[in-house]
Amino acid sequence: MKLALEKSPIPKTHALLTKRLKQPLFDPNWHFHPEYQLFMVVKGRGTQFIGDSIRPYKEGEITFTGPNLPHLWRSDVESQKNRQDAYSEGIVVYFNGNAIGENLLQKEEGLKLKQLLEKSVRGILIKGKTAQEVQRGMQNLVKLEGLESVLGLLRILNLMSETKEIEFLASPGYINSLKQGDTERMNTVYAYVMKNFRNKISLDELAQLTNMTPTSFSRYFKVHANKTFSEFVSEIRIGHACKLLLEEKMNASQACYSSGFQTLSNFNKQFKSITRRTPSAYKKEFAPH
């Protein structure tokens, strides 16, 4: 498996790299790299993993991740198969911290930008009107070359540094403890859970899959995911239930059993714990009107 952390995606002759992605599914590999990354979903839906954060993603979302923060966008395969237009599209921008210049970051003019870069270690979701402005900026950035591309990036970063319309993704103090071999093992775990979360999943299954004892796997997963395996599975199930409530217009009972929960009472408890809302309140707040 070729992982993005193996080498820098930016040519040594450039300060940044901007790419328009168009492929059946976004890269499902759990990975990290030393560059800052700005990513916009143009088309496609699925589950986003950033650090220890798990959440559904959709068109138009923009995230900013700092160096060596593990991440992946796992596309919804089932909702897209049998569709002729089943393509995921996005715009990604990579840049190194030294592309901006350490000297600028130490001056008053660069203070807010420095603070933005520091915030990115947790991963940031850009929201509201700021997201709309950044969307336009990224669509334009793809067309720019030379110094214009650097200026375009600075304009986008300036917008993000000035706004309060952001949401942190990874937990405070999250630390990446993964090595390259770990990313391959965690990819195996993630892929298995995403395929089987509607069914009962035992620790024994994952322990066997990763060639570990159940106790060793539990300890390993808690260290690298910053949560227990059962918490991880619950977050995947609740994320799927959220999509069913909004996109399929299911009620709580239907979403519960379609997401792998065995009882409605446990579903409601887990849903409120993770989203801080009841299923009906979540639907009322986020369903399109």
Automatic annotation (TrEMBL):
<dbReference type="GO" id="GO:0003700">
    <property type="term" value="F:DNA-binding transcription factor activity"/>
</dbReference>
<dbReference type="InterPro" id="IPR018060">
    <property type="entry name" value="HTH_AraC"/>
</dbReference>
<dbReference type="InterPro" id="IPR011051">
    <property type="entry name" value="RmlC_Cupin_sf"/>
</dbReference>
<dbReference type="InterPro" id="IPR009057">
    <property type="entry name" value="Homeodomain-like_sf"/>
</dbReference>
<keyword id="KW-0238">DNA-binding</keyword>
<dbReference type="Pfam" id="PF12833">
    <property type="entry name" value="HTH_18"/>
</dbReference>
<dbReference type="Pfam" id="PF02311">
    <property type="entry name" value="AraC_binding"/>
</dbReference>
<keyword id="KW-0804">Transcription</keyword>
<dbReference type="GO" id="GO:0043565">
    <property type="term" value="F:sequence-specific DNA binding"/>
</dbReference>
<feature type="domain" description="HTH araC/xylS-type">
    <location>
        <begin position="187"/>
        <end position="285"/>
    </location>
</feature>
<keyword id="KW-0805">Transcription regulation</keyword>
<protein>
    <submittedName>
        <fullName>AraC family transcriptional regulator</fullName>
    </submittedName>
</protein>
<dbReference type="InterPro" id="IPR014710">
    <property type="entry name" value="RmlC-like_jellyroll"/>
</dbReference>
<dbReference type="InterPro" id="IPR003313">
    <property type="entry name" value="AraC-bd"/>
</dbReference>
